């Protein structure tokens, strides 16, 4: 396809055959939910911000969502073949330009700005993904970092400086499961030659305490709201745990998980910033930590919001429930679901083209390069937020021909009104047609 110029969020871009941003995504970029007054994502952002003093942590809430692959991946040390770079996972504007997949895309530049010992960045982020009650291709993250400068701390003693700062933080009595040592030679290594063991240990302790205080704050607000809604509310003891993790730009690294409604929910990734990122940013004498937290998940457990699509609702029955909270956080209430409209399930079954077939220039859906996100996107593009979820219900390989057949179940249900069967059928017919047109499958 010939290159053409398109306009996204008021800037123009030259597209190429990497372009894969569907219209529903392009038009949602303008929403910026994290800075909309009284929106639950924005309220969640301010509660987290309140845990980090503005005098130390400078706030950045308006970084532009379209970034270079250098910012999103290369500056953070993502290898060339990292799966996160693939077109099936990431929205590309052109070969070198993406909708940011995480707020970490701004880490290197913000380190280079060097305006404060710490920072908080909140922003919309974009990932091609499955559709269900907890996944949506646009969500919001808050990134934070805290640095100490070897040239500025007394006697160049980072360890002492960090422990002094930890001593100045509030304490808490939440029970935290943290069974692993702060670093481990194979599983979660120290940056040899860049940080001493004691430095990494102190930085990790500051990071963990800072984040535990966020969890304590969120849950004390959630508990107050729960008691206001139901005076007989009995809260279960909060369970949180630190888990060893891997990110290309931190080491050692951890995730924090919260036990919620019967499952461990991952709410953030974090770690000691790799020193070469500081070096490339022109601040080689600084050492510190960074984390990236998902705002939707925190917001869902804070307000008891049952479905991630609700954040995108313009319905007053949703938005009206958060009015005035920005001015007075004590007005924070649990979300009261409005009645659910009936679900309408429809199945679609099809054969993938056998992998030996070479037909169909540009159509990608033979068994080898088929990716589920392609189906998700077709369905979402047609049904929008009237699709509650899409799940694979059957998979079958023909014993003689070796051809593979898949069956998906789509649940059409609007959050805002009852869909008629005709409407659901119309959506479903269009989905069937597009599966053939875009993916080259054969309907069964
Ligand atoms: N950017 C990472 C993610 O989206 C999270 C992260 C941020 C991890 C900062 C470490 C440090 O998964």
Structure description:
The protein is of the alpha+beta class and 444 residues long. It has 2 domains: 32-65 and 100-331, Bira Bifunctional Protein, Domain 2 (BirA Bifunctional Protein, domain 2), CATH 3.30.930.10; 344-443, Ferrodoxin-fold anticodon-binding domain (Alpha-Beta Plaits), CATH 3.30.70.380. The protein has 11 helices and 17 strands. It has helices spanning 23-28, 40-49, 69-72, 107-113, 158-168, 197-229, 275-280, 295-303, 316-319, 372-383, 421-439, and strands at residues 5-8, 11-14, 57-60, 66-68, 92-94, 97-99, 118-126, 138-149, 176-177, 240-247, 250-260, 263-273, 286-294, 344-351, 387-397, 404-412, 442-443. It has an 8-stranded mixed sheet with strand order 3-7-8-13-12-11-10-9. A 4-stranded antiparallel sheet has the order 15-16-14-17. It has a 3-stranded antiparallel sheet with strand order 4-6-5. A hairpin with a 2-residue loop joins strand 5 (92-94) and strand 6. Helix 2 (40-49) packs across helix 8 (295-303) and helix 6 runs parallel beside helix 8. The longest helix has 33 residues, at 197-229. The two termini are 31 Å apart. The model is unreliable at 357-363 (pLDDT under 50). The chain binds phenylalanine. The site of phenylalanine has 11 residues, from strand 12 and strand 13.
């Amino acid at each position: 396809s010939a290159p053409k110029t398109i306009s996204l969020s008021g800037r123009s871009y030259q597209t190429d055959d990497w372009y894969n941003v569907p219209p529903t995504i392009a038009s949602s970029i303008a929403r910026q939910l994290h800075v909309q007054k009284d929106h639950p994502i924005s309220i969640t952002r301010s509660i987290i911000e309140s845990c980090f003093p503005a005098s130390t942590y400078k706030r950045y809430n308006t970084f532009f969502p379209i970034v270079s692959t250098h910012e999103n991946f290369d500056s953070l040390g993502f290898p060339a073949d990292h799966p996160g770079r693939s077109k099936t996972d990431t929205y590309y504007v052109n070969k070198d330009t993406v909708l940011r997949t995480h707020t970490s895309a701004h880490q290197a530049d913000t380190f280079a700005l060097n305006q404060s010992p710490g920072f908080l960045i909140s922003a919309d982020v974009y990932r091609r993904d499955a559709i269900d009650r907890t996944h949506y291709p646009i969500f919001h993250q808050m990134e934070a970092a805290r640095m100490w400068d070897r040239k500025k701390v007394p006697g160049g003693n980072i360890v002492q400086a960090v422990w002094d700062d930890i001593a100045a933080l509030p304490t808490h009595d939440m029970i935290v499961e943290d069974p692993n040592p702060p670093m481990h030679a194979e599983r979660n290594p120290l940056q040899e030659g860049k940080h001493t063991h004691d430095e990494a240990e102190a930085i990790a302790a500051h990071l963990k305490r800072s984040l535990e205080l966020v969890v304590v704050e969120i849950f004390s607000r959630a508990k107050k709201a729960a008691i206001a809604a139901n005076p007989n509310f009995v809260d279960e003891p909060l369970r949180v745990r630190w888990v060893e993790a891997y990110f290309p730009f931190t080491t050692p690294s951890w995730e924090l998980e919260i036990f919620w409604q019967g499952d461990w929910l991952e709410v953030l990734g974090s770690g000691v910033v790799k020193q070469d990122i500081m070096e490339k940013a022109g601040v080689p004498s600084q050492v510190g930590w960074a984390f990236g937290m998902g705002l939707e998940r925190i917001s869902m457990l804070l307000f008891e919001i049952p479905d991630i699509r609700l954040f995108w609702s313009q319905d007053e029955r949703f938005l009206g429930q958060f009015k005035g909270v920005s001015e007075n956080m004590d007005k924070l209430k649990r979300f009261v679901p409005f009645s659910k409209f009936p679900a309408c399930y429809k199945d679609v079954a099809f054969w993938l083209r056998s992998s030996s077939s070479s037909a169909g220039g540009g159509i990608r859906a033979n068994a080898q390069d088929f990716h589920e996100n392609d189906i998700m996107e077709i369905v979402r593009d047609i049904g929008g937020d009237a699709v509650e979820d899409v799940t694979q219900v059957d998979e079958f390989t023909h014993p003689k021909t070796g051809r593979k057949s898949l069956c998906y179940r789509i649940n059409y249900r609007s959050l805002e009104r009852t869909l008629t069967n005709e409407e659901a059928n119309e959506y479903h017919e269009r989905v069937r047609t597009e599966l053939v047109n875009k993916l080259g499958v054969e309907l069964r």
